[in-house]
Design goal:
Rossmann fold, eight-stranded mixed beta sheet, 15 helices, single chain, alpha/beta
């Protein structure tokens, strides 16, 4: 387990069998307060929330799963249509986790890929999600539909990782740790200074051939079945029915190419709120205090 287990003192580590995968998570904080699910992004794990979770532990009961294929969750082989790595499948994992923990209703905040899972979770299980916060993303369908040369250069990995297996897997394996470092230091983050050594060691430990394949499957699903589900939902007129809050970094790709509040507003029934933060992509680690302040305001800690 994580070298810096002291970060998560008071948080229980456990596994939940969801059928085709085993989900690792940490849960802890104040059991008498509302549940807050924190979902990490690529190429990380629940460890990315360590600074945020410690500060919010007295105000929420916090649940931090590793998405399937990431961290210490299992990495089942991808199916032909990549559906077992769809955001719907990952959202169902979160529901299974919360069922196991006995929590019917909860808040959710997702960064990067976790934000995309949280989006699908809030659509498919609207009766379970009370409030949604997404960090440094715009809706997946809008981002793909608006692709141009500038975006493709900035987010080249969206098009590299979706190539047929094992092409990206084998190319990454040629120098996996170097590639991981370039990812963690990119997208406006200006290097690895924002990542504590113990956290970096965890990301490196978990960047195995199995998780690399699973991460590629995650992106393959996003470029295929996830887009199909999004298009079908928009044709039906599906909208987010809970309050939505958006955070993004001023040095990142979202700031450069999109109006995130406007795009999320198109997908929401209620007015969408949000804030640009003076950072890059990995905001919970780059700007933990500001992230905590935003989450406190939006999720109503202390109310």
């Amino acid at each position: 387990m994580i070298e810096g287990d002291a970060w998560f003192e008071g948080f229980d580590a456990r596994r939940v069998d969801v059928g085709e995968a085993s989900i690792f998570l940490r849960a802890g904080g104040n059991p008498d307060r509302p549940a807050l699910v924190l979902l990490h992004g690529f190429p990380q794990s629940h460890v990315m929330w360590h600074r945020v979770a410690r500060q919010l532990a007295g105000e929420f009961w916090i649940v931090m799963p590793d998405l399937r294929g990431y961290g210490d969750s299992s990495s089942p082989p991808g199916e032909a249509d990549h559906s077992n790595y769809s955001k719907r499948a990952m959202a169902n994992d979160v529901i299974a986790v919360m069922d196991d923990l006995g929590r019917d209703r909860f808040f959710v905040c997702g960064h990067d890929r976790g934000g995309r899972v949280a989006h699908r979770l809030s659509l498919d299980h609207a009766d379970r999600v009370e409030r949604l916060c997404v960090v440094d993303i715009a809706p997946t369908l809008d981002m793909y539909d608006r692709t141009d040369m500038a975006f493709a250069r900035a987010y080249y990995h969206w098009f590299f990782l979706i190539q047929r297996s094992p092409l990206p897997e084998r190319m990454i394996a040629a120098d996996a740790q170097w590639y991981l470092s370039t990812l963690l230091g990119g997208w406006g983050s200006n290097g690895l200074a924002h990542i504590e050594p113990s956290a970096l060691a965890e990301y490196r430990r978990c960047f195995t051939p199995e998780t690399i394949h699973a991460m590629c499957e995650d992106y393959r699903a996003s470029a295929g079945i996830d887009l199909d589900l999004d298009r079908e939902g928009r044709q039906r007129g599906d909208k987010l029915g809970c309050p939505v809050h958006v955070l993004w970094g001023t040095r990142g790709v979202i700031e450069r190419f999109y109006d995130p509040i406007a795009l999320w507003q198109q997908q929401s029934v209620l007015p969408v709120t949000g804030s640009a933060m003076q950072g890059g992509h990995f905001l919970p680690e780059e700007l933990p205090e500001q992230t905590v302040a935003e989450l406190r305001r939006f999720f109503g800690a202390g109310s």
